[in-house]
Amino acid sequence: MTAAQFDFAPLLPAGLPAPAARWTGLAKYSFVGGNNDPDQVPVEGLIGAVNAVLRREGQTLATYGLASGPQGYRPLREFLTKKLKRDAGIDCTADDILIVSGSLQALDLVNATLLARGDTVIIEQDTYQGAINRLTRLGVNIVGIPLDDQGMRMDALEKALADLKSKGITPKYIYTIPTVQNPTATIMPESRRAELLKLSQQYGVPVFEDDCYADLVWDGKRPPALYAMSKTGGVIHIGSFSKSIAPALRVGFIVAPWAILSRMLALKTDAGSGALEQMVLAEYCTPHFAAHVPKLARGLRAKLDTLMEALNEQFGTAAEFEDPKGGIFLWVKLPDNVDTLKLYQAALAAGVAINPGPEWSTDKAYAGSRLRLCFASPSHEQIREGVAVLAEVCRKEFGVPARIANVEKQVRA
């Protein structure tokens, strides 16, 4: 006789997210997630770094925090101070940095420190799905600001701030991805960054700057970080090694004034992020990061070219997009009659995984015919084949495009 299985359902608190689906593997043609190019992971360099740092400092693994304290492995934080100064213009010390378990933990810590149910935040209309989902689960009111080809529009931001002030509402922060925005890949110019900081100070609202994709600018030139430009210390800056080295390492960081960083540190009760990952990154990145990233960017740019060529060949004018200045994503607009939430299901059944636009936007109608494609992970061959399959599915489901590979489809007798 088989015993009845224990039922946990009555014990679950209200407000939990829907249960996760079982993992069934990647799609044959996967254009989803923030995965990177497997051929560009510096495996040999990381192996050398593992051996060197473990032989030299392996015994520090016996101590929580590697004897560097709760903010993370000090050599990694010292590497970051030099990198951030060189690349983003940020002048900080190792004590201004908190190492976290990927930028997702950074989002959680900032939110846990600043937000309560019913608060209001301002974010970009099209933005990182992980940020939107977290705010929704927290019961926070989200105000989305439209973007143009230079990022968040300052006229729309100023109007939103004024409208909220007239209602007696002060947002807790303005969340922005100013350098290689996700999903639009725009880069906010320095002049607009100055406008954003001026509005932030005028209305007394801090800026939450997500710089996770900033290393992947094709020409290697980027405007200074908002954190670097701020004269008042009203910016919290986060970054990650997920896009520059490898996402599975789960190492990110927060740069912030001690008054707020200390409050986040008090909430980071996990006894420290993965120590070995931090040790290896510090050992590898100190001598190799500056040479590795341009090589990675060149490989990603080549994959983007393949993706854009494949879309032009298979979709023609039915697929609209701008040529990104960096990153790993292409934000694509299909004709208005295409519902990318439905396209997602049909495409997945055919072996193609895409990110439907509504999941990445505060305006579901605006994003209804848009989709985000990650071009970093699939090979050039998989990109071409996957786009061809996606076009065929789209044509069957929505009659778009009418032409595939610039050849009118023939009806067989």
What this model shows, in words?
- By secondary structure, this protein is an alpha/beta fold.
- The protein has 11 helices and 16 strands.
- The protein has helices at residues 43-57, 74-88, 102-114, 129-137, 154-166, 190-203, 226-229, 258-267, 275-315, 340-349, 380-398, and strands at residues 29-30, 97-100, 120-124, 141-145, 147-148, 151-152, 174-176, 207-210, 235-240, 252-255, 329-333, 352-353, 355-356, 370-374, 403-404, 407-408.
- The strands form 5 sheets. A 7-stranded mixed β-sheet has the order 2-10-9-8-7-3-4, sandwiched between helices. The chain has a 3-stranded antiparallel β-sheet with strand order 11-14-13.
- The chain is globular, with a radius of gyration of 23 Å.
- The N and C termini lie far apart (61 Å).
